[in-house]
Amino acid sequence: MMITTFLLYIFGLIFLIEPTFCTVSVDDSNTILISNGFVTCYSDHLVIHFYYFPFGDKTIKYENIRSCELLSSNDLNFFETKSWGMAFSNIWWHLDIRRQWRSHYIVLNANQWPKIGVTMNDDDTIKVYNIIKNKMII
């Protein structure tokens, strides 16, 4: 699935599709709590897909997340966001070509620079935010 999606990104065909599958399951040691084309939440860590260029996932343990914010996309201006990478802000964005049409986004402070920006389908954004907030060590 990942290789096929990557090839679609390369050839520009991703404009025709968007990852929409979502799974939710019970919390076990390495069980997937929620998964979509943008993130996968496990019981002890989070994987952000297509974080690094040209491909590469980022894994973050919940215990390393210092803060998690759910924010409105209306607050972002043109210079603070882009489809992939870092714009004129301190947030690194994973690949999402439909980011400008999303209602919400998540900003993670994982004790590193830059902060991590995550977007996905709006219903999944709220679910992922709640999972991260519940799993964080405060």
How many helices? The count is 2
- How many distinct beta strands? 10
Query: Into which percent range does the helicity of residues fall?
Result: 10-25%
Name the assembly state.
single chain
Provide the number of structural domains.
1
The structure class reads: alpha+beta
In the predicted model, the low-confidence regions spanning at least 5 consecutive residues are 13-17, 23-27
Mean pLDDT: 81
- N-to-C CA distance: 35 Å
CATH class: Mainly Beta
Keywords: Signal
Signal peptide: 1-22
Describe this structure in words.
The chain has 138 residues and is of the alpha+beta class. The protein has one domain (2-135): PH-domain like (Roll). Helices cover 17% and strands 28% of the residues. It has helices at residues 2-10, 122-135; strands at 23-24, 32-35, 39-42, 45-48, 58-61, 67-72, 85-86, 91-93, 104-109, 115-118. Strands 1-2-3-4-5 form a five-stranded antiparallel beta sheet, covered by helices on one side. Strand 7 and strand 8 (91-93) form a beta hairpin. It is globular, with a radius of gyration of 14 Å. The termini are far apart. 27% of the residues are buried.
